[in-house]
Amino acid sequence: MAKVAILSYINRKSLVHELTGTTKLIFFILWSVASMVTYDTRILIGMLFISVLVFKASRIRVRDISVVLGLAAVFLVLNNFFVYLFAPEYGVEIYESRDVLLQIAGPYTITAQQLFYHFNMTIKVICVVPVALLFIACTDPSEFAASLAMIGVSYRVGYSVSLALRYIPDVQREYQNISQAQQARGIDLSSKDKLFTRLKNSVAILLPLIMSSLNRIETVSNAMELRGFGKEKKRTWYVQRRLKRNDWLVIGFVVIVLVVDLVVTFWDGSRFFNPFL
Amino acid sequence: MAEPIISFQDYGFQYTAQAKPTLHHINLNIYPGEKVLIAGASGSGKSTIGSCINGLIPFAYPGESTGKLTVGGKDPLKSSIFELSHTVGTVLQDTDGQFIGLTVGEDIAFALENSCVAQNEMKRIVDEVAKLVDIDHHLQYAPHELSGGQKQRVSLAGVMVDEVKVLLFDEPLANLDPAAGRTTIELIDMVQERTGAAVIIIEHRLEDVLWRKVDRIVLMDEGKIVVDMPTKAFLSGNALLEHGIREPLYLTALRYAGIPITEELEPQHVDSLRLTGQQIKMVQDWYHRSGAKQEIQEEKTELLKVTDLCFGYTPEVKNLRNVSFTIHKGEMVSIVGRNGAGKSTLAKLICGFEKPTSGSIYLEGRDISDDTIKERAQRIGYVMQNPNQMISKPMIWDEVEMALLSGDMTAEERKERVEETLKICGLYPFRKWPVSALSFGQKKRVTIAGILVQRPQMIILDEPTAGQDYHHYTEIMEFLKTLNEQGFTIVMITHDMHLMLEYTPRAIVFSEGELLADTTAAHVLNDPDLVKKANLKETSLYTLSMKCGIENPQRFTEHFIEYEKEKEHQAK
């Protein structure tokens, strides 16, 4: 079967892979909080540096995840564009000074303050993206549900994530089969037809797909109930691993990063590091 | 006698969503350690009985029940589906759908996880059970890396971790190739021996289940138990024929030879049969009464020719290697072989869904390698296994007309063509009906009509009768036969050895991406070497002919089929 895996578990041997799913999840969450809270450029640059190091350590190559990185880049550009479009003077407001570099038209000028604001915003995202991708690419899908449960998420929620992972390949295969058979009946989904016809045609594939998925859901939920899913308030996990020394070190490290981040950021009562005054 | 572990007393059940009760006055006791087969046609209520036992009724499917039912001494109504799951372990029909975990180990552990068993203990039990069903070397495997038979082992292991007292199998053979089905029956037998659990098998493929000893057979029809007897006594009666279940082939052959089936015959297994010298003589006489084989040499015109076809979904794997064969106009051919042997892949290549790495496909002498899916579909139709995978319009008429809409026919021409097609398929009286009002077999016809409307010369059907009882099987196959008689060439991918023997004179056998044999259906099943390589199963007719000292089992099988056809012909 042709695989269209955009982002999935990539099994390699590395320090990052060896950490438990729980550790990676905690790291990801605290790391995101840390980078979201602050606009302090010094901290952000430090975090960016660490992000790159972690990515190196994971032995995941850029081209493994190039599609997702590309998507992230597009969103980042769009985000920057719209922020500028609607608030071209936001940087001036924050940094309480105004150095015009270039006059464009109407209210749109490029100021050093606005550029600096965009720079900070961009780094924030770049800090988080590698860590988020690593969490997905380096965590064995089997461990997802268990790690979510460890940090207090209800196991029912955790297990739905896990089930989705389990059935996505099946549904993809089913989609492929149905769409091929329907193409043989003159249903064309290629770009030759008009958009409306294509939309109408896609129903011819979606309807059977939905019917078969509903069937699948009935079977799974029966099978799960018959084997006692939902009986107790808690459950244990076959794949769960105990936290080892490295896990504690990593968790300790990210907690320290967060504390330093909070202290530095709020010490002077402002989230922003202001080099202009 | 011991206390029954399951006891129905004048039990009745009606689903909330249905107008009439599905079960009436059921009286059934199942004792510890027993092995019971519940047989019956589709809609006879046999699956509903299963759901009552494992608690899906009333917990997943609500309804009204009357009378009394106890499972493990408890009333299910006052219990819960979880509590019942410690007494009854259920293996469902859909080997894929019930695989919950991402790997074999996790799936087996699922019930233990839900009972909060500690991890060490859990690993120990999983290893132990996996060893018992011989899947312990695959604990890290994902479901798509396993065969159907292996998935079934995992499902079985998954319910055994609970040390249940009853193992319930709901149509365990429906999705398996013949050899895997046989292994499953052996496995169930072995597990019962080790654990001493009572085993209930719900299945309409009687002969396949009887491959291993069964204590008792319960036959259902229209929501009632019509027969409940020990296997031997059951087979000696005429109950099967009256209720739309196929009798084991060796017994049918004995009847044809004029031998009444009695308990003294030990009819429960072809190996246990005790035939007297005189009875053996009767079988031989019946066999020799057959005329010489009628060799009808028809003029054959080539329709589809495949030469040296190679294909792989990934560059490293070769799913098909150097496949060559020819299909002639008006033929009806079976393609057989184990799951994953390349049968469906071949169909996809012929229809143009996938592109071969090398080799060519000719239709009436013309290379069609460059034709698009749509162009090929005008000549070669493809019908998927499950009609629900194809039906996308609520009304029958629209569904059948769909393929014509993209062409350049006028509305008038389309109307004429759809009407004609509906008549061919016996659906004309239903032309204004919604699809949802039809039975499974009729839906299958609608999907075939949706393909026929393009007037292809050839139709490829993927498992046309999978999961169907004898009645629906006959209905679908007789319909295909009439299509064939009208000149359509029909190619079927199938696991069903009866189908191959009865309906298709010729069979093409695949194993691991290679064409293993291209010969008559009777020859395939009488060649032990071929049977083994392709994961098929010899018929009991083969064993019976050996037992009766008939030197040519292939001819014996052919004679059986010819005799059956003639009888049917006379009946008409």
Roughly how many Å is the radius of gyration of chain A? Answer: 24 Å
CATH architecture of the largest domain in chain B: 3-Layer(aba) Sandwich
Number of strands of chain B: 19
Distance between the termini of chain B: 50 Å
The fraction of residues assigned to DSSP E strands of chain A is: under 5%
Describe the largest sheet of chain B: 6 strands, mixed
Computed structural class of chain B? alpha/beta
Largest interface: A-B, 52 and 67 residues
CATH superfamily of the largest domain in chain B: P-loop containing nucleotide triphosphate hydrolases
General shape of chain A: flat
Oligomer: heterodimer
Q: What's the domain count of chain B?
A: 3
Fraction of residues in β-strands of chain B: 15-25%
| Main beta-sheet annotation of chain A | 2 strands, antiparallel
The CATH class of the largest domain in chain B, by name, is Alpha Beta
Helix tally of chain A equals 10
List the domain count of chain A as a whole number: 2
Helix/strand order of chain A: HHHHHEEHHHHH
Mean pLDDT of chain B: 90
Task: Describe the protein's architecture and organization.
The complex is a heterodimer of chains A (277) and B (572). Chain A is flat and about 65 Å long. In chain A, a hairpin with a 2-residue loop joins strand 1 and strand 2. In chain A, helix 2 packs antiparallel against helix 6, helix 2 packs across helix 7 and helix 8 crosses helix 9. The model of chain A has no long low-confidence stretch (mean pLDDT 87). In chain A, strands 1-2 form a two-stranded antiparallel ribbon. Chain A contains ten helices and two strands, in the order H-H-H-H-H-E-E-H-H-H-H-H. Chain B folds into three domains: 241 residues, P-loop containing nucleotide triphosphate hydrolases (Rossmann fold, 3-Layer(aba) Sandwich); 75 residues, no CATH class; 238 residues, 3-Layer(aba) Sandwich (Rossmann fold), CATH 3.40.50. The model of chain B has no long low-confidence stretch (mean pLDDT 90). Chain B is 38% helix and 21% strand. Chain B is an alpha/beta fold. A six-stranded mixed sheet of chain B has the order 5-6-7-3-8-9, sandwiched between helices. In chain B, strands 15-16-17-12-18-19 form a six-stranded mixed sheet, with helices on both faces. In chain B, helix 7 links the parallel strand 6 and strand 7. At the A-B interface, helix 8 and helix 9 of A face helix 3, helix 4, helix 5, helix 14 and helix 15 of B.
